[in-house]
Each structure stands twice: as structure tokens, then as C-alpha cells.
Amino acid sequence: MPTDLFYRLSYVKQQHIIDAIKAEITRVPYEEFSIYNVVHQCGISRGSFYQYFTSREDIYIYLLSDYNRLMIERFIQSLEEHDGDYFIALEEAFRFGVRMLCYKDSKIYRQHLFCNAEFYQRIWKDNDFSAEKHPILSQAFRLININKLNIQDEEELKTFITICMATVARECISLVLNNTYEEVACASFMKKLNLLKRIFQKQE
Hints:
Elements: H1 4-7, H2 11-27, H3 35-42, H4 46-49, H5 56-81, H6 86-103, H7 107-113, H8 117-123, H9 135-143, H10 154-177, H11 182-200
Helix pairs in contact: 2-3, 2-7, 5-6, 5-8, 5-9, 6-10, 6-11, 10-11
């Protein structure tokens, strides 16, 4: 993830660096990614760049996290609109995410960015949903209406969410790497979501 120093840059300077990074990701796969090319395009020194990002892995995880952030924001919006209904919100957030993964940025960029499933898994490597660790996810966690779920307590809820996030992550990675159509990706996800509903959705 970027350092605090990166976030203290002006938005224009941040975007200039990110645009250079995205251009390099689009140009070559992960193994050939060159920080030299990025700093040359930005017109900054290599030392300055490492004050903003500590490694190539940090860059990729940050950009992957941005996709996550947008999906979670959509998830929160859906929770607010549907009385905390987790399954409605998850479906709407996934469909929103699929549209991003099909149409946001270029196809080559997306394929190179999602080249390593390990990076995506590292973003959610545990089920710590604390505000300190994941502030935006912590906000979503508080909005979930647990009365609509077959969940006994908060620990079960955390485990349940972890299962759902792992399912979403696998479907998203598969979508990008296999160049799946939007309709196919949603149909595949809905089969898994409907199974989870039969287990975890409380019947009226």
C-alpha cells in the first residue's frame, strides 16, 4: 500500500504517478514490470518513488484494493437501501464489480493486474473486520441485518463473510483471467450465492 507521504501529495501528483504505473502494468506482465520505466515517465527519482511505494507487490495490492473499495462502497449503498439485507447487497455489489472488471480500464491492464491470485487473497488474509484494519468494511459490517441470517453470533457472522469474500474473489479472478462474459460470470456466481442462501438466509 502507499506510504503516508504519497497521500500527502496533491491529487494531481498522485494521479500522475498512478497513470505511469498503470501504463507500465498495461505494457508488460508482472514479471517484467519496471520501476525504472515508471520513474522515468513520472520525472522523479527512484529514491523518491520508494518513499511512496515500498515494492512492486505493494503497487499491485494497492490497485487491486481500489477495485475492492469500489465494490464495498456499492455494497454499503445496497445495505442502506435494503434494510441491511446481506444477500441483496452482495448480489448487487458483485454485479457492479463484474461491470467494472469487464469495462473499467483496458482488458490487458486488468489481466496483468489480476495475474497473481495470491495478491488478491492477501488483501483479506484474515477475518479481522476492525475499523483499524479495514475501516470501510467495518462500516459495512455494522449495517448488516443479522436478523435476516441464520447466524448465532458475531464470530459466525465473520466466518460467513469470509466465506462469501473468498467466493467473490475467486469469481472475480476467474472472470478476468479467463476473459469471461458478464452474463456468464454472474450466472456462475448466482449458483453459489443461491446455495449460500439456502444455508444462511433466514426464512420469513
